[in-house]
């Protein structure tokens, strides 16, 4: 049970709950996690998120609070992690992304990528060294896989790790690495003579440089970086002993993709709620626009796609809890959730009219963020190819 289950201020239910009663499909503990995340998002993120997005500010002071709430690495067991179920984790992702994609991304990078890599593939010493502090939010991790030349073909990475008598020397560059400039440790994936391996690299190691990427029109309240690895020397025990080949990073990516399946529906819900509220209060031709057939049809279609997306996420969560979730099924969820969330956000902007492009409403911020979510952890096209391969048993990646 999360620490965040302690009494919190009451938080209004989403408007869509009047039609779609998700709670009826959830276990009591899952509802507690959901409400804890909703309260955190409402009380700690939403009051400042529009200003933070405008000012490109990431509020690092919230990280220990996320840890205290139990959200960091919450799906992992031991080492200070909450050991929550997959559906509980998904619901937390949904509620955080209903506030802003950047904060769900933080939880994904910290828990589903960096912490999962250590938990799944690390030695006991590595787990004891890093995981308790990361679960508490006292330490931050990043996941350095994507490179400047492209992220869809990690097998072609050019970052190398060369072994010598004193350990390993890592050379290369990574791009779009979330949290790297504030991280304490980086999970760096590199080519070795034995294939792709993962390394735990403390970010204060000589030769490691992380530079935040400026000029972003999306994910402005979060941090993504360029990373340089110039003769970065780490000891032999820095290697993740349980990760050999691309199955290592792919296993972590699938954890993050699962969170996106849920999270994108949170952004969609926020946009749908804004559109419903505006449809009831904005008057044209002497009556609320929500009283017109065209607007009601749009809202109905948006609700149907939102419900379908959440039900798919719930189905995948139940499969994951039974150990039956496949990578192809995760691709179905990631592809559908983000694609439909973007369409819902676009329809919401139409309903809001010109005001929809202002920061008075969250819609354009969500829409901009979702364009990033659509790209990372596998583009639409990558997931289409994953599904095409599953359907035909033919590989069209090359």
UniProtKB/TrEMBL annotation:
GO MF, one annotated term: fatty-acyl-CoA binding
EC number: 1.3.8.6
One BP annotation, GO: fatty acid beta-oxidation using acyl-CoA dehydrogenase
Protein name: glutaryl-CoA dehydrogenase (ETF)
The keyword Nucleus is annotated on this UniProt entry: no
Reaction equations catalysed: glutaryl-CoA + oxidized [electron-transfer flavoprotein] + 2 H(+) = (2E)-butenoyl-CoA + reduced [electron-transfer flavoprotein] + CO2
Record key words, sorted: FAD, Flavoprotein, Oxidoreductase, Transit peptide
Domain of life: Bacteria
């Amino acid at each position: 049970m999360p620490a965040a289950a302690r009494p919190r201020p009451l938080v209004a239910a989403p408007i869509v709950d009047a039609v779609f009663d998700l709670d009826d499909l959830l276990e009591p503990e899952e509802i507690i996690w959901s409400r804890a995340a909703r309260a955190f998002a409402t009380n700690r993120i939403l009051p400042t998120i529009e200003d933070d997005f405008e000012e490109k500010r990431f509020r690092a002071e919230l990280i220990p609070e996320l840890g205290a709430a139990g959200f960091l690495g919450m799906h992992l067991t031991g080492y200070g992690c909450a050991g929550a179920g997959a559906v509980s984790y998904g619901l937390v992702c949904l509620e955080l992304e209903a506030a802003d994609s950047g904060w769900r991304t933080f939880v994904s990078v910290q828990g589903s990528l960096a912490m999962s890599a250590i938990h799944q593939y690390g030695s006991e010493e590595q787990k004891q060294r890093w995981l308790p502090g990361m679960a508490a939010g006292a330490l931050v991790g990043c996941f350095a896989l994507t490179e400047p030349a492209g992220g869809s073909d990690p097998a072609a990475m050019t970052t190398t790790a060369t072994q010598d008598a004193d350990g390993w020397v890592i050379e290369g560059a990574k791009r779009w690495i979330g949290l790297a400039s504030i991280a304490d440790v980086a999970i760096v994936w590199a080519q070795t003579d034995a294939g792709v391996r993962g390394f735990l690299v403390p970010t204060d190691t000589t030769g490691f440089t992380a530079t935040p990427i400026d000029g972003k029109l999306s994910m402005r309240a979060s941090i993504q970086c360029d990373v340089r690895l110039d003769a970065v020397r780490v000891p032999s025990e820095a290697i993740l002993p349980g990760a050999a080949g691309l199955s290592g990073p792919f296993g972590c990516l699938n954890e993050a993709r699962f969170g996106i399946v849920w999270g994108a529906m949170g952004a969609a819900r926020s946009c749908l709620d804004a559109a419903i509220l505006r449809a009831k209060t904005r008057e044209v031709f002497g009556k609320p626009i929500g009283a017109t057939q065209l607007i009601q049809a749009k809202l109905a279609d948006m609700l149907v796609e939102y419900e379908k997306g959440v039900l798919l996420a719930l189905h995948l969560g139940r499969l994951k809890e039974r150990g039956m979730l496949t990578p192809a099924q995760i691709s179905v969820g990631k592809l559908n959730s983000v694609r439909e969330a973007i369409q819902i956000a676009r329809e919401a902007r139409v309903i809001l009219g010109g005001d929809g492009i202002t920061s008075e409403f969250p819609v354009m911020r969500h829409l901009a963020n979702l364009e990033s979510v659509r790209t990372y952890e596998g583009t639409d096209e990558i997931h289409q190819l994953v599904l095409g391969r599953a359907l035909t048993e033919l590989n069209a990646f090359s």
